[in-house]
Specification:
Strand content: 25-35%
Oligomer: single chain
Order of helices and strands: EEEEHHHHEEEHH
Strand order of the largest sheet: 2-1-5-6-7-4-3
Number of helices: 6
Shape: globular
Helix content: 10-25%
Length: about 220
C-alpha cells in the first residue's frame, strides 16, 4: 500500500454556471491548477462622507462590494501524455478550455439571432440578453455569485498547427450581493448564505484581551 493513501484530496476552485430562473446547473468549469494567490478587495458602502449628517457617519448603505483577482494556468501537457483519451486536446490544444471561459463574456449565438430577427421584424423594444448566473467556488465556505469584470489571456506555447498549448488566464470577478440581485433571486440567497457563513467563521476567532493592546479598558 502506498504511503500516501491518507493524503488529503486537493480540491479545485472554479466556476459553476446556473440558469438564473430555475437554478439548473448548465456548466461546471474546474480550474486545472489552483492559482498561487487570490486577491480580494472590498469597497465599503458607507453613508458617511464629506458634508454628511453626523447621524450617518456610522451607517452602511449595504454590504461591501467584494472583488476577486486571480491568475489561472492551463496546460495541455497532462492531457497530451494520454493522447488516445484526449483527442480534443490533440486536435485543438487548450482551445476548448479557453473557449469555455471566454463564453462567460458572450451572449449565445441563438440569442443574437433571436434579437436580430426581432429587430428585422420591427420590434420596438428588445430586452437585453440574459447570461447564466456565474458562481465562483473556492471551497465550501466561499460560493458566491459573481460578474466578470476583467478578463485577459496570455497564450505562451503553440503546436505546429498554432493551437495554444499553455496559457495564463487573468480573471477579475465582482461579487453580486442582494443589492444587485434582490433577496428572492437564487444568487441573492447564495450571497446571504455566504455572508452568514462569514459571520459564523468570525465567531470562531479567538477573542482578544485588553492586555494584548497594552490597556486596561476603554477610558
Amino acid at each position: 500500500m502506498s504511503g500516501y493513501s491518507n493524503s488529503p484530496k486537493v480540491l479545485k476552485g472554479g466556476l459553476v454556471l446556473i440558469d438564473p430562473t430555475s437554478a439548473q446547473v448548465q456548466r461546471i468549469i474546474a480550474l486545472q491548477y489552483n492559482p498561487d494567490s487570490l486577491t480580494r478587495s472590498f469597497q465599503v458602502q458607507s453613508v458617511g462622507g464629506e458634508g454628511s449628517n453626523r447621524s450617518d457617519v456610522m451607517r452602511l448603505k449595504g454590504p461591501a462590494v467584494e472583488s476577486y483577482k486571480l491568475d489561472a494556468e492551463i496546460d495541455a501537457a497532462d492531457q497530451l501524455e494520454f493522447p488516445d483519451q484526449n483527442r480534443a486536446t490533440v486536435e485543438h490544444g487548450i482551445q476548448p478550455q479557453l473557449a469555455a471561459l471566454e463564453l462567460l463574456l458572450y451572449p449565445t449565438s441563438s440569442q443574437l439571432n433571436t434579437n436580430n430577427n426581432l429587430a428585422n421584424a420591427g420590434t420596438l423594444e428588445i430586452v437585453p440578453m440574459e447570461t447564466p448566473l456565474a458562481l465562483f467556488v473556492w471551497s465550501k465556505t466561499r460560493i458566491v455569485p459573481v460578474r466578470v469584470t476583467d478578463f485577459s489571456i496570455t497564450e505562451e506555447a503553440f503546436d505546429p498547427a498554432l493551437n495554444p498549448l499553455r496559457a495564463k488566464v487573468s480573471l477579475g470577478l465582482r461579487v453580486l450581493s442582494v443589492d444587485d440581485l434582490g433577496f428572492a433571486h437564487k444568487g441573492g440567497s447564495l450571497f446571504m448564505n455566504y455572508l452568514q457563513t462569514k459571520e459564523q467563521l468570525a465567531g470562531m476567532a479567538a477573542a482578544g484581551q485588553f492586555s494584548m493592546l497594552g490597556i486596561g479598558g476603554i477610558p
